[in-house]
Amino acid sequence: MDVCTKQQRIAQLAREHPEWSFNNLAHMIDLEWMREAYAQTRKDGAVGVDGQTAAEYEQELEKNLESLTERAKAGLYKAPPVRRVYIPKGTGKETRPIGIPTIEDKVLQRAIVMLLEPVYEQDFYECSYGFRPRRSAHQALQQLWECLMRVGGGWVLEVDLRKYFDTLDHEVLRRILDLRVRDGVVRRLIGKWLKAGVWEEGRRHEVESGTPQGGVISPRTQKVTSSFLGK
Fold it and tell me: What angle in degrees, to the nearest 10, is found between the helix axes of 184-195 and 61-74?
C-alpha cells in the first residue's frame, strides 16, 4: 500500500472503532513513508544543535532515511536536544521560547505525525479548528460570525492558558495517549522527545514538564497534542 492508502486505512479503523487503542501502527513506516515525511518537512528552517542543513542531509538522502527508519524501529534512535531561541510575542517585551530540532528529528517527527493524525482527526468535533489540517483561524472566525448572526448576537469569551505548553504535564499526556495509541515504537519515540531537553547557552538543560514549541510534533505547531484537547 502507498502512504495515502495506509493513512486512509488508519483513519477508517479509528473512525469505526473509537474505543480502540492502536498498538501496531509503526509497521506502516517504511522507506516510502519516510520519503514522504521528508517531502513534507520544511527545508528552509533554522538548523538544530548539529548544524546540519537539509541540503547536506539530502546529499545521501536514501542512506540517511533508511538508517533513520531502522534506528527508530529498533529503539536505537537518540533524540537530540532542541536548540532554544526566543522570539517576540508581538506584545510588549515578552518573548516566547522556540525549540529548533535537527533536520533528522524533524523528518522522524513528521513520520509520527503522519501516523497519529489519521487517528485523532476522527475524534474531533466538527466545530474544532485548532491545529488541524486544512483548517485555519480564519475559518474558525467565519464560523463564529455565522453562528452569532444566526442567533442574533451574544457573548464571545476568549480564554488563553498562560504558558500552558511550557508546563504541560508529561504523565497526563501519556495517560491521554493510552486511550488511543499504545504502539511501543511510537510511544518510545514520543517519550524520547519529551525527555530530550533543550540546548541553551552552550549546554543541555533537562526538562521535567512542557513540550518545546517549534518542532513538527509540537502542539504549538502541529495537530497531534492539540487534538487531545479538541473535545
Answer: 100
pLDDT score for 219:
55
What backbone torsions phi and psi does residue 71 show, to the nearest 5 degrees? -65, -40
**What are the φ/ψ torsions at residue 88 (nearest 5 degrees)?**
-65, 145
Helices 184-195 and 170-178, packing angle to 10 deg: 170
Is the predicted pLDDT of residue 223 greater than 60, yes or no? no
Burial class (CB in 10 A: 0-12, 13-18, 19+), 112: buried
**With contact defined as beta carbons under 8 Å apart, do 99 and 204 qualify?**
no
pLDDT tens figures, 59-92: 999 999 999 999 999 999 999 999 988 888 766 7
Q: List, in sequence order, every residue forming a beta bridge with 103; answer none if it has no partner.
A: none
- Residue 111's H or E segment, with its range, is helix 103-120
User: Each residue of 3-48: pLDDT tens digit?
Assistant: 999 999 999 999 999 999 999 999 999 999 999 999 999 998 899 9
Query: Are residues 195 and 81 in contact, defined by beta-carbon separation less than 8 angstroms?
Result: no
For 41, list phi and psi in degrees, rounded to 5: -85, 135
